[in-house]
Design brief:
Number of strands: 0
Strand content: under 5%
Oligomer: single chain
Helix content: 55-70%
Number of helices: 4
């Protein structure tokens, strides 16, 4: 497997009690815009903040994907047949990517792991 699709497991950096207490709460943070829930509800938890940061990255990725989808649809969607096909393929691919990141994040949080999202997880480290 390519290393860029498998991020390092940082779970050892977090307290086991912190992980157990906030595990369910961190799962919600991977639904775009809901990263605020673990951030605000467990404001002293480093584990919750880690997952809230990953949720923020995912929210930004989902927003950018939606903008790219609309731009491509607007720019080439008017081309007969080919434009519609390309626009649909791009739209589905971006939607699948966002959904895959949501699932990966929720699974990691459900397992009590602290792993950054593949490829995009390293882009931003705002919430500490």
């Amino acid at each position: 497997m390519d290393k860029k699709f498998d991020s390092d497991d940082l779970t050892g950096m977090f307290d086991t009690n912190d992980i157990q207490q906030n595990q369910a709460l961190t799962m919600v943070g991977y639904i775009p815009l809901l990263f605020l829930i673990p951030l605000l509800a467990a404001s002293t938890s480093k584990y919750a903040k880690f997952h809230a940061n990953q949720g923020l990255i995912l929210t930004i990725f989902a927003f950018v994907s939606a903008v790219i989808d609309k731009l491509i649809g607007f720019i080439i969607g008017w081309i007969p047949v080919i434009g519609g096909i390309v626009s649909t393929v791009v739209s589905v691919a971006l939607g699948v990517a966002v959904l895959a990141y949501i699932v990966i994040g929720i699974v990691n949080a459900a397992q009590g792991k602290a792993k950054k999202l593949p490829v995009i997880g390293e882009l931003l480290d705002v919430i500490k």
